[in-house]
Amino acid sequence: MKKIFFLSFLLSTCFVFSQKKTLQAQPISQSVVIDGKLDEVAWENVPVATDFVMFEPDNGKPIPNTKRSEIKVLYNNDALYIGAMLYDDEPDKILKEISQRDNFGTADIFGVFINGFNDGQQNFEFFVSASDVQGDCIMTDANGEDFTWDAVWISKARLSDKGWIVEIKIPYAALRFSAENKQTWGINFFREIKRERKKYTWNLIDTKIGTFTQQNGNLKGIENIKPPTRLFFMPYASYYLNAGEGQKTYGTMKGGMDIKYGINDAFTLDAILIPDFGQTKYDDQILNLGPFEQQFNENRAFFTEGTDLFNKGNMFYSRRIGGAPSIDPDLNDDEKIIENVQNVNLINALKVSGRTKNGLGIGVLNAVTEKTFAVIQDTITGATRREVVEPLTNYNVLVLDQRFRKNSSVTLINTNVSRNTHYRDANVTGLAWDLNTKANTYNLSGNVKYSLINAEEDKKGIYSTIGFAETSGNYRYSFGSDFVSKDFDPNDLGINFYTNYYNFYGNANYRILNPTKLFNSFKINLNMYSEFNKESGKVQDNSINANVNLTTVKNNYYGTGITFYPLESYDYYEPRADNRYVALPQRIEWWGSISTNYNYKFALDLNPTLLLFNQSGRLNYGIDIGPRYRFNDKLLLTYTFSYLRKDNNKGYIDSVDEDDNESTPKAIVFANRNVITYANTLSGKYAINSAMTLNLAVRQYWSYAENKDILELEQDGTLSPHPQYTENKNSSFYSWNADLSYSWWFAPGSQVSVLYRNSAANFERTIDKEFKSNVADLLTNTALKHVFSVSVKYFIDYNAVKNKIRKRA
Known about the structure:
Oligomer: single chain
Strand content: over 45%
Helix content: under 10%
Number of helices: 4
Distance between the termini: 74 Å
């Protein structure tokens, strides 16, 4: 058996590295105009990369000659040039929707993947669509494609009677490579023919192997170039006009600068001075009835761009920085808060990240937020005072990630939060590993984290996880276990909800690797999960799940799954009290999903759900319906209606003292309630051209919880009637957000953004079930807040400025 395993391992390894193609780059001294014509003499007699093979869906199948691709590479002392002739025998059928940067919509795509160190660790990927829209990202096997990374480069796509042509100039400042005289880079070329939903690459990317970045070809011939000084300045100026009921309309000006500096060929410093996040996307707030805070997506570019290192070990939640205040002010009798902030102001932030040629990745992130106060008023005397709700705070993340054998890594992570004077400090340290066999067929992953909170009483906790998986072939499996102590708390700079448990989980799945007569893709999964309270041993969660996901030969997606919860379980979080739990009955859940082919002008997404409880009258059901229509290559509208209903939901509403005896524990009050949620979202895009777009985003949300019966939680986790509680704890939350924006990339890396935003939100204990009136009440001048803003960001490349000065001299 060992001999068979070794032979299979050896053959698989040899197969991976025997597929590498080689292309010779051609040096030039003359200039090349990026116009999508390839008519300069420099493009003549240059080695050609051709013979593309399919990546998806029929992996390894050669591209038809009628769709052949011919790629050439030139270079000089400043940049790399790529010229691509992409043949198509039906050029009038080429899809070419115009979209925003990094979002290609329904359009053919050409891409080039570059690894200047040729170490299989990460690719810098540059894409151009047939409608001349750019996109770029950093790709790693661990984190996939990170499109929040943006570089400054030049491209032009042009349609022809033979297909379409792409011409690209990538300045060396946008890449990373060594200072050696003779370079061998990893490179691959990508092409997607959208109407056929087929993707091709120059060097085969074998989908049977669990890696992407290690399957590049080789680019040779680049000699005697030097990494340039990577120094970029991005000054900006913004103007905001604010208006709302009860306040005087006022305007504010903001200005600042982002700086990006290449410390050496591997490491980059990013810094923001006087941050401005006023035009970031609004948060999709919900009626949150659960025991945990709502987790929001990060929309601020600085905290999303190039942060793959900082996401190692899942210890960093960037919304903590500049988020809500961490301290609740102490109120005396007859006092109330009359002025508080939702988000603490960020003073500045910087990050240093990169990876050496020996595979050591280093990331350092630091941010400082300002001291913040709430204003408190005495309701009797009218006197006011201020109290600190967030002291001056320093946030720091340090990551050391050592990669080896091109596909494995061991990572040390530390997050630290230091608050000025006597306030709470926090430190979390973690060790994570991601180990793969050389042939990328098996994976061993996991981490150990230790948290230390310095407050009135120090708190220490541990989180550990380990998992093993087979990652190649048609049949794959995985299994693992987690252990979390009660006092593990990473939430000052991370986010974690569940503690004090251990679990076991497993997965087995089957997938097709090549299309059949019916399916382009097909995958079936079987999952099992068990979770136990660490102290009592009671079952906190248990499930058996089976699901199927497939894409038909017409590229329509279908998915369905069913989950059984066969045992009664015990929820230790909903009661909001130590060592208390509520019993959850057995239940069964079903979901379905349909997404029709987006190539058609009209497409539809449909997602129904159903959850049945082994409890009289208790069930959940809902549906998301999302039609979308592409009127032409410029205009697209997408609408989604979401509805969710929870009948006889059992949830916490209060904790009360039943008598004056302090030794008597508080009664934990639940409600038997109906929870109903409606949400309508509309998004639209009108592209004036590949550099200018008008964008619309509208969201209406309404959710209410109507209590029918009041219940008391018993010590054994059951619920009994508690009619003596009479306080109104119904909940109704409704909100409205609308953004209309204009974006113009008027020069490489430089942008004008104009935004009009209106928003409103309200929370009430009284429920008005008239849908129309709830929406109308939010759209009055009394409720709406308005913001109009204009922001200009300009990209300045130190090298370009230096060259212009030299020419004038």
